[in-house]
Specification:
Layout lengths: L12 E4 L13 E7 L4 E2 L12 E3 L6 E6 L6 E3 L4 E10 L19 E16 L4 E17 L10 E8 L4 E8 L4 E3 L2 E8 L4 E11 L9 E5 L2 E15 L14 E4 L2 E10 L10 E4 L20 E8 L5 E11 L2 E13 L3 E8 L9 E4 L13 E10 L5 E4 L4 E12 L7 E9 L2 H4 L2 E3 L4 E10 L4 E9 L9 E7 L1 E2 L9 E11 L10 E9 L1 E2 L2 E2 L11 E12 L1 E4 L3
Parallel strand pairs: 23-24
Antiparallel strand pairs: 1-39, 2-38, 3-38, 4-5, 5-27, 6-27, 7-8, 7-18, 8-16, 9-14, 9-17, 9-18, 10-13, 10-16, 11-14, 12-13, 15-16, 18-26, 19-25, 20-23, 20-27, 21-22, 21-25, 28-35, 29-39, 30-34, 30-38, 31-33, 31-35, 32-34, 36-37
């Protein structure tokens, strides 16, 4: 256009292009530059991206994607204290072997002696951590030892046919040492042919405590408020043939019993561990935003943005994370999305996709958040993912007490630039460098410059043009009017088939001398998903496949051009 305005001379001259021969001006009312056509213009040649920015061209698909990793955060440590159980009371209960009255005073040994009695009682307790709600069973490590002195009856009974020692049924144990090897019958140790000339001794290693056993007056293990209470009784049952004539009575026997204080290292039950997500799920700094997403009119309403979460959880406990996404710009909160509920399974690396539509994402559990796109509707400087977490306290699990479990969250934003209905981006470019060619000219009254073309659009967006005159400093030029006679370009409805639309721009000088200041036009193109009641949504902008082509570009000067070449 500028080249068409170059004329030569050394004085003020009026050029009436209405009089130019038709071989120079097409038509009879002005000078027209011969029509031209561009090549296919790929979207990547129009939309400039920032190096290392948050909007990228995907290396494999060439789709435009808003992609940003959250800042790394420290693993969250979860720990429930071990339970220390200490002895509160222990007492040996005297017992004696019964001699049948018929055997007393006989000249020879006759009958048998028996014993059936409690020989020891004890109580233990410990402080229950508040995170422990219920216990079904507990792993415990301690040694229980019993010594029953039988020598006092050896003058009457040389051997007991059977001795049964019964421990509380809530104790699981392994036999460790013994003076005579027993057999097992549940929680009862059975000894056969036990000599009475020495003590009967046995030690067992306690391995587990069963909180589900029915409590009795003598044997019970239970949670009472913030305490774990243990009560137990050791029972003996024995019999043996009298080998010597008994005296009237046998002295009572006191068994010796010991069980060291112990620690519960693991438990099966229900737990509510405290999970402190002090850093939430992290934050992400948004940098390198391209110009076409920064205009005040931009609305980044994306069809199905995604936040991809990984949450490592080495506890058995399932749980739930309650999240809140906060978008900030210049330090101020511009949007908050509340009530994001994220399920977390135990003993696994959880992969969760938060998206807008609920569409499946292979290998991920999907959480639908319909308002998700609002997080970047106005591009923020920072996105923070605040969160709290709670374990599923209704599920029975095994928990290693005193052990550091770890919750390891990380997230990334992956939002293809595929428009939803309200999306709008703004592209700006300047066609300039005209001033050297037109600074000595101005348009006469009623003269104007007309530019027409046909735009072949393969981009899945409706385009609307606007233009304003600028000087060499890119400031607006007063006295130049630019009218967009035809400014709307129809969208490709599928991103494949191209649609043609005419455009027309009319430039008029409205103040004398304004043409001398003009250096070019600032072109603004608004790309929208919706025009009227029709919307093109869900198609990701592609750097290679989506193109524009401008056909039949014609620039025409209508009326007089006044040149001052002095």
């Amino acid at each position: 256009m500028a080249g068409a305005l170059v004329v030569t001379g050394c004085s003020d001259s009026d050029y009436d292009f209405d009089q130019i021969d038709a071989t120079i001006g097409i038509g009879g009312d002005g000078l027209e530059i011969p029509a031209s056509t561009t090549e296919n213009i790929k979207l990547k040649d129009v939309l400039d991206l920032e190096e290392n920015g948050s909007v990228v061209e995907d290396a494999s698909t060439h789709d435009y994607v808003f992609r940003q990793n959250g800042d790394p955060i420290n693993p969250v440590v979860v720990n429930i204290n071990k339970i220390h159980v200490a002895k509160q009371h222990g007492e040996s209960l005297p017992f004696a072997f019964n001699i049948p009255s018929a055997a007393k005073g006989q000249r020879r040994a006759y009958g048998s002696v028996t014993a059936d009695a409690d020989i020891y009682e004890f109580t233990y307790n410990g402080d229950k951590p508040k995170e422990v709600l219920d216990i079904v069973s507990a792993d415990a490590s301690t040694t229980l030892s019993l010594n029953v002195p039988l020598q006092s009856i050896s003058s009457v009974v040389s051997e007991l046919q059977t001795v049964e020692i019964t421990l509380p049924d809530y104790i699981s144990f392994d036999v460790a040492t013994y003076s005579q090897k027993p057999t097992r019958n549940g929680s009862t140790l059975v000894f056969n042919n036990v000599p009475t000339n020495k003590a009967l001794q046995v030690s067992v290693n306690v391995t587990k405590l069963d909180f589900t056993k029915t409590a009795t007056a003598k044997n019970q293990i239970k949670i009472a408020g913030d305490k774990i209470n243990i009560k137990g009784t050791v029972h003996i049952k024995a019999n043996g043939a009298i080998t010597n004539i008994p005296s009237t009575t046998l002295n009572p026997i006191y068994a010796e019993f010991s069980m060291a204080d112990f620690t519960i290292n693991a438990a099966t039950g229900k737990f509510d561990p405290e999970i402190k997500l002090n850093e939430g799920l992290g934050s992400a700094k948004i940098t390198g935003i391209p110009d076409f997403l920064q205009d005040k009119n931009v609305k980044v309403d994306l069809y199905n943005p995604e936040i991809l979460l990984t949450i490592g959880n080495d506890m058995e406990a399932d749980g739930t994370i309650y999240g809140k996404i906060i978008s900030k710009k210049n330090g101020a909160v511009i949007n908050t999305i509340n009530n994001i509920v994220i399920p977390v399974e135990g003993n696994t690396m959880n992969k969760v996709c938060i998206n807008r539509t609920g569409a499946a994402h292979a290998g991920y559990t999907v959480v639908a958040v319909p308002e998700l796109s609002k997080a970047i509707e106005t591009i923020p400087d920072e996105i923070t993912f605040e969160a709290t977490a709670k374990a599923n306290s209704n599920k029975q699990i095994t928990f290693q007490l005193g052990h550091d479990y770890h919750i390891t969250p990380a997230y990334s934003i992956d939002a293809p630039l595929a428009f939803a209905e309200n999306a709008e981006i703004v592209y700006k470019d300047t066609l300039d460098g005209w001033n050297d060619d037109i600074k000595d000219m101005e348009l006469a009254t009623d003269a104007y410059i007309s530019a027409t073309a046909t735009v072949e659009n393969g981009v899945p967006a409706y385009l609307t043009l606007d233009a304003s005159p600028v000087d060499v400093n890119k400031n607006n030029v007063e006295g130049i009017s630019i009218e967009l006679v035809k400014k709307d370009v129809a969208a490709s409805t599928n991103g494949v088939d191209k649609v043609s639309s005419p455009i027309e721009i009319k430039i008029t000088q409205t103040a004398k001398g304004a043409m001398k200041k003009l250096d070019g036009i600032l072109i603004t193109v608004a790309g929208k998903a919706k025009q009227g009641d029709t919307a093109v949504t869900g198609i990701t902008l592609n750097a290679e496949n989506h193109t524009l082509k401008v056909n039949d570009i014609k620039i025409k000067i209508v009326g007089k051009v006044i040149g001052d070449f002095n």
